[in-house]
Amino acid sequence: MNPLLYMAQRGTAALLALAVAVHLATMVHAVRGGLSATEILSRTAGNGWFLAFYCVFVCAAAIHAPIGLRSVIREWTGWRSRSLDMAMLAFATAILVLGLRAALAVYQPGGLVP
Amino acid sequence: MTSTSQNGRPAAAPAEETLRVRVWRGQADGAFEDFAVPRRASQTVLDVVTEIQRAQDPTLSYRFACRVGMCGSCAMVVNGRPRWTCRTRVSEAVDGDILVLEPLRNLPIVKDLTVDMVPFFEKWRDAHGAFEPGEAPPSDFAPVRPDSPKRKAADAGVECINCGVCYSACDVVAWNKDYLGPAALNRAWTLVNDERDRGNAARLAAVSGDVGCHSCHSHMSCTEFCPKDLAPTYAIAGLKRATAPSPIGRLLALLVKS
Lengths: 114, 258
What we know:
The structure holds 2 protein chains of 2 kinds. Chain A is mainly α.
C-alpha cells in the first residue's frame, strides 16, 4: 500500500472508531427513549453540530473503505491495474455523495428532494 | 521417551513405538510418500529425516548444516507449522503418531524438502539489508550506548538466522509475491536503528509501499512462528512509524502549494 494511502486509512480509522461509537450510542439512546422519526427529525433539523459530525463521518468512511477494499482486491484477485484505482475513486465518490446527501436530508428535511 | 542405554546415549524405544512419517516428494506437483521410523528418546524432526535418508531412501533431498539452531538451513513445515527441524523434538511436534513433513511455503520447491532460497535473499537485498557505511569513512568511533532506545531496538531483531520460517508463515507473501517479507523488513529495521549506517533514506524508500511495511496486515504469524522468538511484526510497525513523516510531509507540501 502506498504510504500516503496507509496514513489516510489509519487516520480515518481513528476518526471512524469515535464516530461509529457516538453514532451507535446516540441511535440506541434515541430509540430506547421512545422517540418517533418525526421527533428525531425535529431535533436534527437545523442542528449544525449534527451536520458537521456526519459530514466528518461520511468523509472518513469515503476515504477509509475504498482504500481497504483496494487492498483486499489487489491481494485476493489479479486486479492491480490503474482501472482498479479508478473503480475505487468511483466507489469513494458514491459513498461521499450518498452519505452527504443523507446527512443533508436529515439536517434539512424536505429541502433536498422535491 | 526418556530411556537411555548403559553408555548414556538415547536408546531405541520399544519396537511397537513407530512413527508414521508422510514426506513431500518431488516438486510443486509432487505427492506425499509414507515412511515408518522407530521413535527414539529426544528424537528431533531432523533426526527423523536423516534416518529416512540414510536408512530407507538415499534419494530424499533436504537441507541442513549445523544441527544446533544457528545456521537456519533446516526449516520445513512440520505438521502444518513452519519450524526449525534441528531444534524441534518429535514429541512436541506430533499429536499422535503421524509426522507430516513439507517444504517451506512461499518459496519454489527444488526437490522434496529443499526449497530455493534465492527469492528470500533477493528480498533482503531489495530491502537494503546490508550495512551502508556512507561515502567517507567516519573519523571516529560511533558511540552507541547499550541502553539507548535505538540499540535496544536493533538488538531485538538482530539475532535472525535467515531460516525462512517467518517468510513461509506470512500470508501477505502468499498473496503478493513481491512483498519483501518479515525477515527482510526486520533486517531493515535493525539497520535503521544502527547509528553508524548512512543509507536510511534509500532504505526507508525501499521498504515503503506495496512491497514493503505498509502492506503488512499485522497477522503476527512471523512473530508466532519465529524459532528465535524475534518479533518481526514490531520491527515492521517500527518501519511504518519511521516512514510516516515522509507522506505527511508530502501531504503538507501539497496543501501549501495549492
